[in-house]
Specification:
The chain contains two helices and five strands. It is mainly alpha-helical and 145 residues long. Strands 2-1-3 form a three-stranded antiparallel β-sheet. The chain has a two-stranded antiparallel sheet with strand order 4-5. The model has no long low-confidence stretch (mean pLDDT 86).
Length: 145
């Protein structure tokens, strides 16, 4: 029985009212801090958690011990580390590519914003010039009338 929080075999398994199995010390700590099921977010109290038994009225003391990992030799550990390193490098490369794309997009958007600002400034200047010309025409018209 694997704990739904740690993913490891539960030494003292308990089951919640939502049907998930947890290590007793982990779910107790989580309930005290959050007051809810860590999987379903349903409100949960310590009374809602039941100890799992092998036989009626007898707590489970026999927990299957995990098997040893196949990576017990030095070459196997080196291969495992090489695989991990390869995945880290591949992820790093993908993140660098994403970073570059985002930087290019930001640069393009900054240029667009700068161009839009220049267009607005030009339009405001032209509007102000048109208003001045209109005022001068109105003043000349009043003098003629």
């Amino acid at each position: 029985m694997h704990c739904s929080i740690s993913g490891e075999i539960a030494q003292e398994p308990v089951i919640s009212k939502s049907g998930y199995i947890f290590e007793k010390r982990l779910i107790t700590k989580h309930i005290e801090e959050h007051g809810e099921c860590p999987v379903t977010s349903v409100p949960l109290t310590l009374e809602d958690v039941i100890l799992v038994h092998d036989a009626p009225g007898k707590p489970s003391n026999r927990v299957a011990q995990p098997r040893l990992a196949p990576h017990t030799s030095i070459p196997a550990l080196l291969q495992l580390m090489q695989n991990e390193w390869d995945s880290v490098v591949a992820e790093s490369h993908a993140l660098q590519g994403t970073n570059l794309q985002l930087r290019q997009e930001i640069t393009r958007l900054q240029y667009q914003e700068d161009a839009a600002t220049r267009v607005v400034a030009t339009l405001i200047r032209e509007r102000d010039d048109a208003r001045k010309m209109l005022e001068s025409f109105q003043a000349a018209y009043r003098q003629q009338a």
